[in-house]
Amino acid sequence: MKILLADDHELIRKGLKEIISALNATWQITEVASLPAAMTALASDHEIELVLLDLYLPGAAGVEGLIQLKQQFPGTAVVIISSAETPEIVAAAMQNGASGYIPKSTGNEVMAKALDLVISGGVYIPPQLLLGSVAPVAAASAEAFPLFDKLNHTQQRIAALLSAGLSNQEIANETGFALQTIKNQVSSILRTTQLENRAALAAKLALMQIQ
Fold first, then answer.
1. How far are the Cα atoms of 41, 102, 181 from residue 110, in angstroms, in the given order?
2. 174 and 114: one domain?
3. Are strands 2-6 and 100-103 parallel, antiparallel or unpaired?
4. Do 205 and 134 share a structural domain?
5. Of 134, 135, 112, which Cα lies nearest the Cα of 124?
6. Shortest CA distance to 9 belongs to which of 41, 55, 40?
7. DSSP states of 54-96 as a string?
């Protein structure tokens, strides 16, 4: 697998490269420091499958850089790595084709899990976006995700944690429920929402955020 790191801060690129290499040492990583350089790299190497993109690269203006990249390379997955953490910016990035959004304040362990989730085909949304808006989302979910309303409040909270990439054990630690209870609730959530897996649930919740 080939991955492109697009960030103008060398320390950020170095940190991301170490995390990615720990996940799989055989993955090939290319580094660039501007949006034009990212475009050139993608145009010259069509085997790049994933771009980790800073929203405020030289040559980019917030989500406009993401929009340009997705317009020219629609088949390439893009994960935003940014210091901006407002729900509005996260939602705008997801609305414009990002496969995930990872704040730079994220710890290395969580970032590794987030990247692993996205590389496996999932969607990563910061917990602060999901957990901070479960109630208003539930109230406005009839059109975007009608089956979400069939979950009770506890299940909605577990769904948000699950979609944020937390393991069953981590959800148990966060909520105070027993591990087996969480396993049972996850099965019930997927059955009730008629979704196959966590990635599908994360994608649905991301859509609800941008309706």
1. 28, 9, 23
2. no
3. unpaired
4. yes
5. 112
6. 55
7. -TT-TT--THHHHHHHHHH-TTSEEEEEES---HHHHHHHHHT
Contacting residues for 110 by C-beta, under 8 A, at least 6 apart: 165
Give every CB contact of residue 162 below 8 A, 6+ residues apart in sequence: 171, 186, 189, 198, 201, 202
- Residues 79 and 52: their CA atoms lie apart, in Å, by 5
pTM of the predicted model as reported, rounded to 2 decimal places: 0.66
- Provide the token pair at 47: 């085997």
pLDDT in tens, the chain (211 residues): 899 999 999 988 999 899 888 888 899 999 999 999 999 999 999 999 999 999 888 988 788 899 999 999 998 989 999 888 777 788 788 778 888 888 888 888 888 888 887 777 777 777 666 554 444 444 444 445 667 778 888 888 888 787 766 788 888 887 888 888 888 888 898 889 888 777 677 767 766 654 4
Q: Are 1 and 119 in contact (CB under 8 A)?
A: yes
Residues 153 and 90 in one domain: no
Q: Residue with structure tokens 């084709």?
A: 97
User: Domain containing 159: what range?
Assistant: 130-209
Residue 50 DSSP symbol: E
Helices (H), the chain: 10-23, 35-44, 63-72, 87-95, 108-119, 127-131, 134-139, 153-163, 168-175, 179-193, 198-209
